[in-house]
């Protein structure tokens, strides 16, 4: 059995990840691959419970370190029960956010040092890395304006502007560090142009 490929979709608030996931899945399916669609934090029963705790803004404040560990605890479950079994049986895994989000949110946004994240990444993921990452990037005021149209803002969405600026800069830093893997798309263009670029990236990848 040929192992599947692992593709991740990244970006800050409101850049269009959810909007474009189904489109990317349909592009992949044109090449006759079976796609497993999943997300982080989440993807298993326990990981989805951790997601709820992470997004809930009421109750006890979550420390930066606890947040980081909860994200990697969810990721460990997700890799063991969803990602690795799907890749092993030849499926292509399309995941809404993965470890680049940890470098952006916990590294950039919360100021946790990179070495701690790298250490957990090695522990939890071993050799697993995305084969392709698509980063949707837009000025934060555009993404936030889109996200704020929703009724309830979660714990991350309720952060201050500086947090989102640091998240964005950390994503751009990751993209500059790994240009072979991370493909950047300007997400402040009309959706049809974003999707043209997405289709081209998938075609080139194949
Ligand atoms: N998190 C973390 O801290 N560390 C980690 O390691 C991981 C995650 C893995 C999960 O939330 C939270 O977990 C996340 C970081 C943290 N924090 N936040 N916030 P999520 O996965 O649900 O992510 P999200 O950023 O909240 O998703 P979002 O706000 O729904 O954004 P989106 O999915 O990128 O956007 P969308 O829902 O597709 O689009 C928003 C609106 O814009 C919608 O009305 C669209 O119709 C519209 N849209 C989209 N594209 C366009 C274009 N091109 N033009 C015009 N309008 C558009």
What is the string of SSEs from the N terminus onward? EHEHHEHHEHHEH
Question: What is the first-to-last residue Cα distance?
Answer: 18 Å
The CATH superfamily title: P-loop containing nucleotide triphosphate hydrolases
Number of helices: 8
Write down how many β-strands occur, each being a DSSP E stretch of 2 or more residues: 5
Major sheet characteristics: 5 strands, parallel
What would the average pLDDT be, to the nearest integer? 96
Low-confidence stretches: none
CATH fold type: Rossmann fold
Count of domains: 1
Strand content: 5-15%
Q: Give the oligomeric state of the chains in this entry, treating copies of one chain as homo and distinct chains as hetero.
A: single chain
Helix amount? 40-55%
Radius of gyration: 16 Å
Task: Name the CATH class.
Answer: Alpha Beta
Looking at the overall shape, the CATH architecture is: 3-Layer(aba) Sandwich
Shape descriptor: globular
The distinct ligands, each listed once, are:
ligand Z5A
Structural class by secondary-structure content: alpha/beta
Strands side by side in the biggest sheet: 2-3-1-4-5
Structure in a nutshell:
This protein has 206 residues and is an alpha/beta fold.
Topology record:
Blueprint: E1 6-11, H1 17-29, E2 35-39, H2 45-55, H3 64-88, E3 92-96, H4 99-109, H5 114-125, E4 132-137, H6 140-147, H7 161-177, E5 182-186, H8 191-205
Parallel strand pairs: 1-3, 1-4, 2-3, 4-5
The protein binds ligand Z5A.
């Amino acid at each position: 059995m040929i192992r599947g490929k692992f593709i991740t979709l990244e970006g800050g608030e409101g850049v269009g990840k959810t909007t474009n996931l189904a489109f990317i899945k349909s592009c992949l399916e044109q090449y006759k691959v079976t796609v497993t669609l999943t997300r982080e934090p989440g993807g298993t029963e326990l990981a989805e419970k951790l997601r709820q705790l992470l997004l809930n803004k009421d109750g006890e404040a979550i420390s930066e370190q606890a947040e980081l560990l909860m994200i990697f605890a969810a990721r460990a479950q997700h890799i063991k029960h969803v990602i690795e079994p799907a890749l092993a049986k030849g499926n292509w895994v399309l995941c809404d956010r993965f470890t680049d989000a940890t470098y952006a949110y916990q590294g950039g946004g919360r100021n946790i040092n990179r070495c701690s994240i790298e250490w957990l990444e090695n522990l939890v993921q071993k050799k697993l890395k995305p084969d392709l990452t698509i980063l949707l990037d837009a000025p934060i005021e555009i993404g936030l304006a889109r996200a704020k149209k929703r009724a309830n803002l979660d714990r991350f969405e309720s952060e201050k502007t500086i947090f989102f600026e640091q998240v964005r800069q950390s994503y751009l830093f990751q993209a500059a560090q790994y240009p072979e893997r991370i493909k950047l798309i300007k997400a402040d263009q009309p959706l049809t142009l974003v999707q043209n670029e997405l289709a081209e990236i998938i075609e080139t990848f194949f």
